[in-house]
Amino acid sequence: MKIKFTLLTLTILTSLNCFSQFTIDGELRPRAEYRNGYSSIIADDVEPGFGISTRTRLNFGYQTEGYNFYVSLQDVLVWGENRQLLPQDANNSFSVFEAWADINLGANWSTKIGRQLLAYDDQRIFGSVGWAQQARNHDAALLKYKKDKFILDFGLAFNQDKANLGGFSSIGNEYSTTGFFSYKTMQYIYLKNNWKSFSGSLLLLNNGFQEFDGAGLQDGLSNLQTIGTNLGYTVGKLGLAGNLFLQTGKRQGDVDVKGAYLASLDATFKASNKVVLGLGAESISGNDANAGETGAFFPLFGTNHKFNGFMDYFYVGNHANSIGLFDVHASALLKFKNKASLLIKVLNFSGEQELASGEKSLGTELDIMFTKPTKAGKLQIGYSHMFANDGMYELKGITKTAAANTQNWAWVQLTISPKFLNTSKK
């Protein structure tokens, strides 16, 4: 039996070498979190949350001169969510996270079709949302052009509900999935060019959201347009990066969007090989319009955990159509031996408009994250503390006297990324 197994293994590996490249890798990412004011102010009479979640991935890649093929299988679970001896996964946590083919069309053109990540620039509008255990993907078709330092992507998506027959509906095109800016249709053009010390990109994005009438019947689409640019400039030890985005059209619920914007500017200074300092500000418009209208900008499909504080008080499944945000922040990244690092960041938040009381000041957040590569994988430890002002209590709908005296969040995460197989044609 051992001889047969060895021969079978050698046969498989020999046949794999006939391919241009075949890879198998994985990821195991357990994370423990203590939540005592994460995402919102916690009340004094509420017990803090503690739990452990794990993301597991198994990835397969196949590459030739004509096309690339990739599949990523993913399971996300919370420890203990299934009872003992449960015959099936009660929470349906297993999924195909990515499944796409990138086909070479020649003359610098290609097309990428299937379930895939869409991430551009600093991931402010399109991002992988890798911090979230489930992450984000899109079912889309892209037409891509790349030559030297210029790239152009044209993306299309059309989403449909499943029917009882097991495929898509044979009648009509109703799309009942709603919430979190789930779209029925999407079209976008993305262009970017890099020069010696400057880079610039342009994004033109349209999302169509399914609407329903009072009887619950399909009632057309609300189309929201997001237009903007990401700019970067580096000279010596100084780096500058900025975003400017506008939104117009209609958002979910047939609400007119007028004058919505996001503007940011960040500077980094490499004080030494061991110290990088940062300073920046971001302004995001809020809702100051009449009923049926809004001036609030929402960064849609971005990696929002990366911005406006790690405690996710803003734009991470929350703060849509609210008072907007003005965020001023400073950071220091300290690098140590063996590729370990410590990030310290302080953010001060204010409303872009006043609250009902006239208050604008929301509070200050302190974020600390330590990262260290180990023999097992990448270890990360984080701590965040929210120093809330009166405006934050009003915004989150809790009085200061009812809130806990301490609002904080701590976590530890280990990412193990094994490389099982990489065989290339010689």
Characteristic terms for this protein:
5% helix, globular, Porin, single chain, 426 residues, 20 strands, mainly beta
Radius of gyration, rounded? 24 Å
Look at the structure and give the mean pLDDT: 91
Element order: H for helix, E for strand = HEEEEEEEEEEEEEEEEEEHEE
CATH architecture: Beta Barrel
Q: What is the number of independent domains?
A: 1
Largest sheet: 18 strands, antiparallel, barrel
The CATH topology label is Porin
Structure, briefly:
With 426 residues, the protein is mostly beta strands. It has helices at 2-16, 390-396, and strands at 21-36, 49-63, 67-78, 94-106, 109-116, 138-147, 150-158, 185-194, 198-212, 218-235, 238-251, 255-270, 275-284, 293-294, 325-335, 341-350, 361-373, 378-388, 408-415, 419-424.
Description:
The protein is built from 2 helices and 20 strands. By secondary structure, the chain is mainly β. It has an 18-stranded antiparallel β-barrel. The longest helix is centred in the N-terminal third of the chain and has 15 residues, at 2-16. The model is unreliable at 4-12 (pLDDT under 50).
SSE topology sketch:
Layout: H1 2-16, E1 21-36, E2 49-63, E3 67-78, E4 94-106, E5 109-116, E6 138-147, E7 150-158, E8 185-194, E9 198-212, E10 218-235, E11 238-251, E12 255-270, E13 275-284, E14 293-294, E15 325-335, E16 341-350, E17 361-373, E18 378-388, H2 390-396, E19 408-415, E20 419-424
Parallel strand pairs: 12-14
Antiparallel strand pairs: 1-2, 1-19, 1-20, 2-3, 3-4, 4-5, 5-6, 6-7, 7-8, 8-9, 9-10, 10-11, 11-12, 12-13, 13-15, 15-16, 16-17, 17-18, 18-19
